């Protein structure tokens, strides 16, 4: 069942060939543990440039390119929609109507642009952490950040309430707090990455995802009336960008 859920997660969270069928989707939306498991795959692929014998700026650029080739722009689009909703004056109903608007406004452009700049600068910091052609802290932090971002999404799925009927409610409405135990177990291999990388930055990057998710859950309950699909996507993008910086800073200092 877990493998079926992971295939469904690949179909939903990435552009990789996975499971686009009804059985895979149904298994995925009932199995939050698939989120961090997919995170290992995405993070591992995105981290490949950090072990190539290329200049630091090139490795950072290749990381960004690989990341969005693997994941697509669905989550980034959710971040842009949430940025538009965040700057709207009005009640939750007004903000939800903005989320459903296909046009991107200034708030969305600013949110997406700033996040990409922050992520790019973080990638530059990652690329400068270690040598090439070996397992480096950059690889460990990149993987941990992606697992943490997906764990943040799983946290919302397990603890959130649907803001409205839609794709988000198909995930949030099917899970409860009990699903977080399996999610936590799936994150344990990150501890091994921390031992290999020799620093607390890896753990810090992992924890950052759920922390960002809880903050956005609080905002969503107040401003949107719950968790929407766009909020899930925005959590992924914001948590990853924050986790990269937190991981680099923690590894550097400790």
UniProtKB/TrEMBL annotation:
Keyword field contains Cell wall biogenesis/degradation: no
Q: Into which EC class is this enzyme placed?
A: transferase
On whether Isomerase is a keyword of this UniProt record, the answer is: no
Listed A to Z, the keywords are:
Cell membrane, Cobalamin biosynthesis, Magnesium, Membrane, Transferase, Transmembrane, Transmembrane helix
Q: What is its main location?
A: membrane
Recorded GO terms, molecular function? Answer: adenosylcobinamide-GDP ribazoletransferase activity; cobalamin 5'-phosphate synthase activity
The record's EC number reads 2.7.8.26
> What GO terms describe the biological role, i.e. biological process, of this protein?
cobalamin biosynthetic process
- Named cofactor requirement(s): Mg(2+)
Membrane topology according to the record? Multi-pass membrane protein
Locations listed in the record: Cell membrane
State the pathway, as annotated in the record.
Cofactor biosynthesis; adenosylcobalamin biosynthesis; adenosylcobalamin from cob(II)yrinate a,c-diamide: step 7/7
GO CC list? plasma membrane
Q: Which reaction does it catalyse?
A: alpha-ribazole + adenosylcob(III)inamide-GDP = adenosylcob(III)alamin + GMP + H(+); alpha-ribazole 5'-phosphate + adenosylcob(III)inamide-GDP = adenosylcob(III)alamin 5'-phosphate + GMP + H(+)
InterPro entries (UniProt xref): CobS
Q: Which residues cross the membrane?
A: 33-54, 60-83, 104-127, 181-214
Q: Which NCBIfam families match?
A: cobS
Query: What protein family is recorded?
Result: Belongs to the CobS family.
UniProt xrefs under HAMAP family: CobS
Q: What does this protein do?
A: Joins adenosylcobinamide-GDP and alpha-ribazole to generate adenosylcobalamin (Ado-cobalamin). Also synthesizes adenosylcobalamin 5'-phosphate from adenosylcobinamide-GDP and alpha-ribazole 5'-phosphate.
User: What is this protein identified as?
Assistant: Adenosylcobinamide-GDP ribazoletransferase
- Which organism encodes this protein? Haloferax mediterranei (strain ATCC 33500 / DSM 1411 / JCM 8866 / NBRC 14739 / NCIMB 2177 / R-4)
